[in-house]
Amino acid sequence: MMTTNNLVIFDTTMRDGEQSPGASMSRDEKVRIGKTLERLGVDVMEAGFAIASKGDFEAVRAVASVVKESTVCSLARAHDKDIEAAAEALEPAARKRIHTFIATSPIHMKYKLKMEPDQVVEQAVAAVKKARQYCDDVEFSAEDAGRSDPDFLCRIFEAVIAAGAGTINIPDTVGYALPHEFGALVGDVMARTANSDRAIFSVHCHNDLGLAVANSLAAVQQGARQVECTINGLGERAGNASLEEIVMAMRVRKDLMALDTRIDTTQIVPASRLVSSITGFAVQPNKAIVGANAFAHEAGIHQDGVLKHRETYEIMAAEDVGWSANRMVLGKHSGRAAFKSRLEELGIEPGDDNDFGDAFVRFKALADKKHDIFDEDLVALVSGNESMDGAAMFTLTNLNVTSQLGTNPNAAVSLDVQGEGVDSSAQGDGPVDAVFKAIEKIAQSGCEQKLYNVNAITSGTESQGEVTVRLERAGRIVNGVGADTDIVVASAKAYLHALNQMMRPQLRQHPQASGV
Ligand SMILES: CC(=O)SCCNC(=O)CCNC(=O)[C@H](O)C(C)(C)COP(=O)(O)OP(=O)(O)OC[C@H]1O[C@@H](n2cnc3c(N)ncnc32)[C@H](O)[C@@H]1OP(=O)(O)O
Ligand SMILES: CC(C)C(=O)C(=O)O
């Protein structure tokens, strides 16, 4: 069997990732992702499925035209027309691979392909031979290998290696396998396939049971030397093995898996953000490596440990994966060590033991009432002026929006500005835009709106809508949140919430305080 000290990272964000409902990517978006993956250092990127549509054909071709360092690949069924389309789309690539596949499990062969196993072997061999006419680098995948007969896998792999496949992929297509079982399958098939040393064995695991990464690593320990994965674990159904988790597991546990990858890990977070913004799939805060909380500590005991010696609670450094720093979040679980450290960072003298102790008691009381403790809250707290917490410069007193088909909506807004009633009105491209413009006529904040997001808190047309507005001014970013059954009112509240925070005394912005 062919074993090396390198693990080939095969990214399929633009193919299997794109099969995630709602994650469709345009040609230009794929070009942006392709360039980012090249910077990240992936060995192979699967840019699409050329036969799927004219748009995907053009996307594969466009990625193949711009990416020079990584191999660009297209998927193709075991059909001549698929392979011809893949070959044509990949024609401009500096390095190219055709990836052809056919299912090998009894259930897929019988019900989906309606083919006998002998026919499947024959068609796989023909496909690999056809692909080799266009390119030297051909990968063969046995779809649903995780539920296939190992003897049949050995037979088909032997045949496609003889036909010229250089990479043999063993997918757990439906995410059914358990790690020890999948590792054993890969080890067994590699050991019993004739001429396995002429191919690199690869795995492609799905996350239906949340085991895609564990299964991939189990296979690597048994000799697999290519892992197929995606940024943020994007992919069909519950997704694929996530690239960032595979790569960082290899790095952090080098003691158990002494393999190298070409990945520049500092590019992981930028790649994650790009994929998230293009697909509109938010990264959950607790997602390993790339979630906003992956390097954040709120618990006092942890914060104390990290302040004394970072490795007490961190197995890797935030900076190594592309964050600017780890993050201490002050909240009700925080202790004196983190509280004192933040005061010192803010240049605030904590005072003698009594003053500091009193401030800490006030901090805990505030944290019980408030989710987010801002630096401004700490200043207010230490100066004894806690009223700053609730002080709002602008309060909504009335809102009237008129909207008629064919005309621009108009918003009339009344605000209480530090005790004085002020009215204004404005037209906008939509009712929310009109409201924001009317508020800005009064506030004149000079803020730039960076995000507008609406979530339904409950289901049904009468549900509460929760709006988030992110504003930026002179590099300072604040988030405002507002909820109401009327989405326009919720938007006004969110905008004013953000504005009121922006108007508070400005202090140092903590790195990544606004999350991903
Ligand atoms: C596990 C995976 O992720 S596999 C990749 C899945 N990705 C996709 O399917 C996305 C792109 N797919 C598509 O755009 C379309 O399905 C196409 C263009 C490939 C095919 O479209 P259609 O010709 O309309 O076929 P349709 O999708 O309805 O059915 C698939 C056909 O391919 C056959 N087929 C499926 N896999 C393979 C294969 N690996 N090799 C050969 N034939 C196959 C099926 O048996 C079925 O054949 P039938 O029409 O004779 O019953
Ligand atoms: C085409 C193959 C590799 C696949 O996507 C799967 O089996 O999940």
UniProtKB/TrEMBL annotation:
Quaternary data: Homodimer.
GO cellular component, one term: cytosol
HAMAP family associated with the record: LeuA_type1
Enzyme Commission numbers on file: 2.3.3.13
Function: Catalyzes the condensation of the acetyl group of acetyl-CoA with 3-methyl-2-oxobutanoate (2-ketoisovalerate) to form 3-carboxy-3-hydroxy-4-methylpentanoate (2-isopropylmalate).
Pathway: Amino-acid biosynthesis; L-leucine biosynthesis; L-leucine from 3-methyl-2-oxobutanoate: step 1/4
Cofactor(s) in the UniProt record: Mn(2+)
Pfam families cross-referenced by the UniProt entry: HCS_D2, HMGL-like, LeuA_dimer
Binding annotation for Mn(2+): 16, 204, 206, 240
Annotated segments matching region Regulatory domain: 395-516
Domain of life: Bacteria
Reactions performed catalytically: 3-methyl-2-oxobutanoate + acetyl-CoA + H2O = (2S)-2-isopropylmalate + CoA + H(+)
Family: Belongs to the alpha-IPM synthase/homocitrate synthase family. LeuA type 1 subfamily.
GO biological process: L-leucine biosynthetic process
Transmembrane helix listed as a keyword: no
Protein name: 2-isopropylmalate synthase
Stored InterPro entries: 2-IPM_HCS-like, 2-isopropylmalate_synth_dimer, AIPM/Hcit_synth_CS, Aldolase_TIM, LeuA/HCS_post-cat, LeuA_allosteric_dom_sf, LeuA_bact_synth, PYR_CT
Entries under SUPFAM superfamilies matching the protein: 2-isopropylmalate synthase LeuA, allosteric (dimerisation) domain, Aldolase
PANTHER family the UniProt entry points to: 2-ISOPROPYLMALATE SYNTHASE 1, CHLOROPLASTIC-RELATED, HOMOCITRATE SYNTHASE-RELATED
Segments forming domain Pyruvate carboxyltransferase: 7-269
